[in-house]
């Protein structure tokens, strides 16, 4: 009897584990179901979720890696892209997922916490491990580290050079597609890529990538209609180049609504409130959805700059100066986060890169553009430099009369706070939309309790119940206005923590604007 119950318990646990593991595997492609006879491109995270179209915007976004500074990351991307061609065409369209829990689940599938123990670093197969680029932010000089080998006794620390200089870099798991993209997770390519150690003045390829993904998040979020981060995703196109120009990553967009622009995204139909009226409006642009995707997969960055008014934001090699986000403790075989970031729930040896670090520059970057370079024709090519150093120095150099919340927070606590605020932003958006649909309006009429034609002058009825509550029957029949977001003590505490992290350029949520 006991054995039978024990067997049933074990079976239940196994079934629960299988169900839980399977449930976390989010779908990685778009669907095109027919709704009312009209094809509709949409994404359905899992079988229990609705199929929601991607965020509808006139803009086309582009992310470009510079493989001169990120060779191992680029090699990882090349291998995945080569295995996912369609009709002999490389598919470069990806979709950014703003939902934190799905991001975490994907990373658990591509880079589990045991990944660093698999003995694969440095990469020995073909192509082998490329030398890691290291930028010194103090001397403003860069170099390719001469060895790819590990330090004796370590499973991730890159060895010293021949003169005994320490590398101050470790290998960690790079996945492509990243976990913040819906195509990431199960089936992603993984590869050893360098990440700088705690308290060192260096930057390496995973720092460049991490900052760029955070900037991409904010860059797109600040340039599209308000959307639900829990259900909607934003499409962008991926590129790679190779140039010794001190620009590891570039992010840019073209706007199909610009005067004289030949290319428009399909999301430019008749507008109503936040975007498009009806799913069929997706097809009202200059291109169909498929035509737009084909164009985005084939157009070059040079063509975008010369012919399509590309507005760019460059991530420079020294953009991480004084940045507290990328600090790891240098302990052989036990490298963990020395400071918090908003990417992970806990400290992980393998996961030393942060897709989610939003530098929160989207609301001021274009206003602070360092220079404008005219293109070869009449269209403008605007280059936006990221003023991280100026921003961080102004924040970290201020005098403070209170203890910053971030000094006493753990990584998991910050991540929980980010999720609370993300959900609150989503709820506030929904509630505000409901209020907009049914706004409270002033009702003009006689004063409450007035009796017309009463002898002896105007009389007032008694007020019953709490003060200010009318006993007029017609007023009681009016529907109450939709509620506003209930700001609980937990939400207030989480918002305070995230706002402080946001001011330091860590979360990219811009809480002060988003909750209004």
Low-confidence regions: 1-24, 257-264, 268-285, 320-402, 462-476, 508-516
Question: What percentage of amino acids are in beta strands?
Answer: 15-25%
Shape estimate = globular
If strands are numbered along the chain, what order do they take across the biggest sheet?
A: 6-12-3-13-16-18-17
Strand segment tally: 20
The averaged pLDDT comes out at 69
Radius of gyration, in angstroms, nearest whole number: 27 Å
Structural class estimated from helices and strands: alpha+beta
Helix count, per DSSP? Answer: 11
The share of residues in helices is 25-40%
Our measurement of the CA-to-CA distance between the termini, rounded to an integer number of angstroms, reads 60 Å
Assembly form of the protein: single chain
Number of discrete domains: 2
What is the makeup of the main sheet? 7 strands, mixed
Task: Briefly summarize what is shown.
With 516 residues, the chain is α+β, with helices and mostly antiparallel strands.
What features would you describe in this structure?
There is one protein chain. This protein is α+β, with helices and mostly antiparallel strands and 516 residues long. It folds into two domains: 34-396, no CATH class; 399-435 and 482-516, no CATH class. Helices cover 27% and strands 17% of the residues. The chain is built from eleven helices and 20 strands. The strands form seven sheets. The protein has a seven-stranded mixed sheet. A hairpin with a 2-residue loop joins β14 and β15 (275-276). The termini are far apart. 40% of the residues are buried. Mean pLDDT is 69; it is low at 1-24, 257-264, 268-285, 320-402, 462-476 and 508-516.
